[in-house]
Amino acid sequence: MWDDWNIQHVSKHAVTVYEIEQVVKDKNAVYLSAKLGRRMLLGRFKKRMLAVVLNEDEKSDRFYAVTARDMDRNERAIYRQGGKND
Questions:
Q1: Cβ distance 23 to 41 under 8 Å?
Q2: pLDDT tens-digit profile of 17-50?
């Protein structure tokens, strides 16, 4: 789900809606628990590796992108290991 707020927010991190929508389709995406009952998606689109924070909209059973940014070093390692954080 997109609205003016989250589109503007992710653009502050130099991330586009299109990139997020493609990362969600990543067959190797890793989903992690995040703060406040949210989920974090670690995924790749082309050479870009993004961490996307998602919140579930209980009314529609859809997810709302709260923010997105480039993965940090630890997140890249988790992604490359397929979600295993050993």
A1: yes
A2: 999 999 999 999 999 999 988 999 999 999 999 9
User: Do 21 and 41 form a contact (C-beta atoms < 8 A)?
Assistant: no
What are the extents of the domains in the chain?
Answer: 4-80
Task: Quickly tell me which residue has 């295993």 as its tokens.
Answer: 84
Q: What is the pTM of this model?
A: 0.86
- Which of 35, 32, 42 is CA-nearest to residue 69? 42
What is the SS3 string spanning the chain?
CCCHHHHHHHHCCCCCHHHHHHHHCCCCCEEEECHHHCEEEEEEECCEEEEEEEEEECCCCEEEEEEEEECCHHHHHHHHCCCCCC
CA dist 58 and 70 (Å) reads 27
